[in-house]
# Entry
Amino acid sequence: MSNSLEIVSVNTSAEKGTIKTPQPSVCVDALGIQGDAHAGPWHRQVSVLGVESIERFAAQSNIALRPGAFGENLTVRGLPANGAVLLDRFALGGVELEVTQIGKECHGAGCAIFHQVGKCVMPAEGLFCRVLQGGQLRPGQRGRYFPRNLRVWIVTLSDRAAAGVYRDRSGPRIVELMRQFCAEHRWEVEFETALLPDDSEQLRLKIAAAAAANADAIFTTGGTGVGPRDITPEVVAPLCEKLIPGIMENIRLKFGADHPNALLSRSIAGVIGRTQIYTLPGSVRAVEQYLGEILKTLEHLVFTLRGIDAHH
# Structure
């Protein structure tokens, strides 16, 4: 779902840390807004602030403020009330921006904005973006704000479940846990699920399709043991460009201390392009245990794979 937006003002300054001046129009290129001090080859090329934030601050402080007072490049109306998430996008007059940072460190008395206004809303409410597509921007232009959906593929490997001998429970449990996780992190989420027999070629093709579709995460469940039909790690490992051994090593040690059979799992974690992939055991209990650890770093890895330092 998208939000309708309107540009209230476009603002620039020749120096960082200063109040920006409204302009009749600006040109946006691959580095940001031409002539603005924040333009450059980095992730904070264009800053955005809702006019609602300025109006609220002005009313609370009894100070008259104009757009650009907090150093924002774009003053817009219509941002979602519940805030933004990294990788959300703006489409404004042909210009496309991607949110790469939310808020920033306040420089306090050393900042011209702080000195003139008294304090700043940008550290908590400012959005910082990189340019995906350039163009011209001017006040009055309308556009849309698009939340970034987290794309998750879930593949269950089981000869018997695929044959209908019993119902798959581990795949649906991953869906439940991911929905809960995404709700807590304000992510919109979309799923693609599959139930396959323990077949190497079918699994390989499904993973390739997920990576080609730019999935953020792939979870397989089943086939990580040492039985004759357990082939998941052998299929997945060669497809990964990078392996992340620490995640599964930690899980095996944590749960293997009380349940030694957990040490027999050959689960792996890795990266294919910008897609992270995890091979989980086939039991519901194992899915819950593994996801409890994996989800601690999943969001950070989504951002890292896209060149975003979420901790700025």
Summary: The chain has a mean pLDDT of 92. The chain has two domains: 3-146, 149-304. The first helix runs from residue 51 to 61.
